[in-house]
Amino acid sequence: MKNPKKKSVLVEWLDAAVFAIVAATLIRWILAEPFTIPSSSMEKSLLVGDYLFVSKLHYGARTPRTPLQLPLTHQSLFGIPTYVDWIQLPQTRLPGFSSVKNNDVVVFNYPGEKSFPSDLRTNYIKRCMGIAGDSIEVRHQRVFINSQPAQVPVELESGYQLLTDIEINDRVFKNLDITDYGNMPGGYRVFATDAKAKAFKEMPFVKAVIKEEDPAGEADPSVFPFAPQMLPWNKDNYGPLWIPKKGAVTELSPRNVVIYGSIIADYEGLDNVQVVDSALVIDGKPVKTYTWQQDYYFMMGDNRHNSADSRFWGFVPADHIVGKAWLIWLSLDERGSIIDKIRFRRIFSLIK
Length: 352
Known about the structure:
Blueprint: H1 9-31, E1 32-36, E2 50-55, E3 76-77, E4 80-81, E5 105-109, E6 123-130, E7 135-139, E8 142-145, E9 148-149, E10 158-163, H2 170-175, E11 181-184, E12 187-192, H3 194-201, E13 208-211, E14 238-242, E15 249-251, H4 254-267, E16 273-276, E17 279-282, E18 285-287, E19 289-291, E20 296-300, H5 310-313, E21 316-317, E22 321-331, E23 349-350
Antiparallel strand pairs: 1-2, 2-22, 3-4, 5-6, 5-22, 6-20, 7-8, 7-14, 8-9, 10-12, 10-13, 11-12, 15-19, 16-17, 17-18, 20-21, 22-23
């Protein structure tokens, strides 16, 4: 019997590479996916330069909607698209051992990005303040869920104005672990916790510390659902707003059409939806009620005055949920020197 022909070194390397790509793809799809914090919207709970693992096991992994995609990529590589959307499959979710809960830190596909298939939209990370069926309200920056005060994140930040006549040394901000600040006429604008704002009040060169807040009843046309004359809401005084729940029936009054019409049209999988004279028209017929086909969530950043979140673009559909932010495996300070570039105290810390 002849001995089988030995594989060449090149073939062995190709076999190993294919196996590694397949294994990494499966791990990234089913178990966990790496994620980097790109902005300060979650400070100080999560910092720019934190490298996370996002658990797919908690909520269950999604089956791919866009299967024709280069493995281990998201939207593009070197500016070149790494997918084609010729085929779009129905999406389901594998069983998980948890559902999305209030106060979870969640990674999801940004729903406002319509130029990509839903499973390839840019990944965002925020805290889930309201789950399906909840009613959410913000009163003077404080969040209420079903009329009860919501849990306050330990490192919750707000915007403050520091009034001073002098230039404050960067070391002052570094000593207070404040990274999100800038000059303004008459002083500085900083994003900080209440405790750190209090520390500034005790500094002799700071004349005043003013907490920023939009007054109640002052409409901001940039907040969802973009109806300032009907709903005079802003980022600090918002709602109450009911969050759609799968199977719930919503009466389509003119007010509800303003709030939920675009959500039904964009995310409920319907082909022919229009808003005509404050009425919702589906397949050419006006409808008086609507039964929701999936759950939705309301996401907010912990840096409440420097966060583009559900207050500005609406609900996150269940099929946009990627996973639960689980573990920080590395943290790098972009402003740090060679000596203190790595934030060792944050490595291997669980995300709360």
